[in-house]
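Data deposition worksheet. Section B asks for the primary sequence of the deposited chain exactly as it was used as input, without tags or linkers unless they were present during the calculation. Section C holds the resulting structure in token form. Section D is free text for depositor observations; keep each observation to a single sentence. Incomplete worksheets are returned to the depositor.
Section A, Depositor: J.P.
Section B:
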Amino acid sequence: RDRWRVALIGVGNLGSALISYKGFKEREFNIVAAFDNNRRIAGRVRRGVRINHISKLKSVVRKAKIKMAIITVPVHEAQTVVDKVVEAGIKAILNFAPTKPKVPDFVALLNIDMGIEMERLSYMATQKNR
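Section C:
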């Protein structure tokens, strides 16, 4: 049950919640490493996942054969992080930063903007309540 080995970048509130989400493993997505630029949390383990400093991204990705990344960083860091992820060899990215980073054509990128999704939901709720 380890078909997709995943890296999570950004271990704030959302990243921590995603590390704890059991639905990934049920669907054969296994977060095997996490990364953050905060040196105070680097080296810690959360829910069995080691948090590495972002400077170790390339070496850990290659050693752990990680194929996919989830990005939960602030908007102003998103493009830099995406560039590092692509440089590390990852070709599939799920981006939760509220921006649309640029990636090469050979990289699959899915952007999840929670603000837009909430707007969509509020519109749907308004239509249902008419």
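Section D:
The first strand starts at residue 4 and ends at 9.
The chain has five helices and seven strands.
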